[in-house]
Structures are given as structure tokens and as C-alpha cells.
């Protein structure tokens, strides 16, 4: 009987301790709810942490505009963001053919309003070198010799860190290639357990080679 009472008391103590820890953690997370401003030189950024565990994020940096929405939690000294499902943009091969001898010809179909000059082509060569070329509005026309025959090409949209799969090139399939860019959810960020460190009530996010410090503006 005495042993049973001791066990019951220990169980109650553990439950009470766990409840206190959860309440404390919940209170700490609740203290982070609010709107934050991360704007700095060249960057406009905002973050909202909602009481229901949802977040909204937006950033503008030069020609780049991006946003995200999803769930947030507090984990230790960090806020962790996980976006709602995002349909990633992609490059699709439309056609390929012989084209002009000794010339790599790249064409790109894209959505209206998105300049082809935002796109790059990463070209691997038989000599082991790789070069990166910016497209013009007419695409890309790149002469080559037997010393630097292109062996593959990969399309890029650097401003949004979008990269297609490398397409192998050879004489039999030709060096005239046409791609199509499908934007899908372009501009929506797929945060996957992305952590923002909490320092003195501010939230720090490393993004695009910069550290963005979000400061609370409202609760």
C-alpha cells in the first residue's frame, strides 16, 4: 500500500513538472507573437508571427521579391519556420536539333514580363572547363571549336536561386536547344525547418548572403 502511494505521488509530481515546463514554453513562445521589421540598406523585409502558430514573411532585395507563409514554432533559442507546400519553378526541354555547325544556340520560352536577361546558362566543355553566360532577349549564341565542345548545359535563374538539370550535349542530338521556363510558385520560399536565432528579442535570418535582423514593431 505504501509503495503504491509513493508511486502515485511520484507520477503526480512528474505530471505537474511536465505541465509547468509546457506552460513556461508556451508563455515564451507567446511572447514572440507580433510583427517584425527586417528592413536595412537595399532590403525591405517583414515577418509576422501569429498566435495560432502561423507566420507570414516578405522580402524585397533589388529585383528580387519573395514571400512565404506557413507554420512556426519556438525551439530553444530559435524560431523555426516551415512553409506551406510550394510548387517549385522548373525548366523543361522543348526541342533540340542540329542547328548551325560550331555554334551552341539556346532559346528560352518564358512568362510575359520576365526578361530573358535574368537567366544564365552554365555550360560544361570537353576540355573540363565550365563557363557561365547570361542570355539576351534573343537567347544565347555561342561559337565553339573542337577544343571547347560543349558537353552539357544547365539553365539558371540566379536571382531566385533556381537551377535546372544538366542536359547532355553531343553531335548526334545537335547543339540547337530550346527550353521553356515554368514559374509555378516562383517567388514563394520553401522554408524547411529554417531557424532564426533569437537575440535580445530580435530574430536573425541568414538569407541571400546577408543577415537580416527582424525587430519587433507590434505585438
Question: Could you please describe the fold and organization of this structure?
Answer:
The protein is mainly beta. The chain folds into three domains: 1-30; 33-86 and 188-218, Lipocalin (Beta Barrel); 90-182, Immunoglobulin-like. The chain has one helix and 17 strands. The protein has one helix at residues 2-30, and strands at 34-37, 43-49, 54-61, 64-75, 78-83, 90-97, 103-109, 120-125, 130-134, 140-143, 150-157, 162-163, 167-168, 176-182, 194-199, 202-207, 210-218. An eight-stranded antiparallel β-barrel has the order 1-2-3-4-5-15-16-17. Strands 8, 9, 11, 12 and 13 form a five-stranded antiparallel β-sheet that branches. Strands 6-14-7-10 form a four-stranded mixed β-sheet, with no helix packed on it. A hairpin with a 4-residue loop joins strand 8 and strand 9 (130-134). It is elongated. 18% of the residues are buried.
The CATH architecture name of the largest domain reads: Sandwich
What's the multimeric state? Answer: single chain
Q: Separation of termini? A: 53 Å
Total strands: the figure is 17
Helical amount among residues, as a percent range?
A: 10-25%
- Total domain units: 3
The CATH topology of the largest domain is given as Immunoglobulin-like
CATH class of the largest domain: Mainly Beta
SS-based class: mainly beta
Strand order of the largest sheet: 1-2-3-4-5-15-16-17
Ranges where pLDDT stays below 50 over 5 or more residues in a row are 1-8, 10-25
- Rg (CA only): 26 Å
Shape summary: elongated
Order of helices and strands: HEEEEEEEEEEEEEEEEE
* Percent strand: over 45%
Mean pLDDT: 89
Amino acid at each position: 500500500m505504501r509503495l503504491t502511494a509513493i508511486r502515485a505521488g511520484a507520477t503526480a509530481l512528474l505530471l505537474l513538472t511536465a505541465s509547468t515546463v509546457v506552460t513556461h514554453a508556451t508563455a515564451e513562445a507567446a511572447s514572440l507573437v507580433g510583427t517584425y521589421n527586417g528592413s536595412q540598406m537595399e532590403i525591405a523585409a517583414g515577418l509576422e508571427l501569429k498566435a495560432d502558430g502561423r507566420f507570414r514573411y516578405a522580402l524585397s532585395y533589388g529585383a528580387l521579391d519573395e514571400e512565404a507563409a506557413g507554420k512556426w514554432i519556438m525551439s530553444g533559442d530559435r524560431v523555426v519556420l516551415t512553409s506551406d507546400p510550394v510548387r517549385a519553378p522548373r525548366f523543361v526541354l522543348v526541342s533540340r536539333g542540329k542547328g548551325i555547325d560550331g555554334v551552341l544556340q539556346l532559346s528560352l520560352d518564358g512568362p510575359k514580363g520576365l526578361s530573358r536577361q535574368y537567366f544564365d546558362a552554365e555550360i560544361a566543355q570537353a576540355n573540363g572547363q565550365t563557363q557561365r553566360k547570361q542570355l539576351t532577349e534573343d537567347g544565347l549564341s555561342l561559337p565553339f571549336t573542337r577544343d571547347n565542345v560543349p558537353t552539357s548545359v544547365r539553365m539558371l535563374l540566379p536571382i531566385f536561386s533556381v537551377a535546372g538539370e544538366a542536359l547532355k550535349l553531343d553531335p548526334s542530338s545537335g547543339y540547337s536547344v530550346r527550353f521553356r521556363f515554368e514559374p509555378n510558385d516562383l517567388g514563394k520560399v520553401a522554408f524547411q525547418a529554417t531557424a532564426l536565432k533569437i537575440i535580445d528579442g530580435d530574430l536573425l535570418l541568414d538569407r541571400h548572403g546577408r543577415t537580416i535582423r527582424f525587430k519587433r514593431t507590434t505585438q
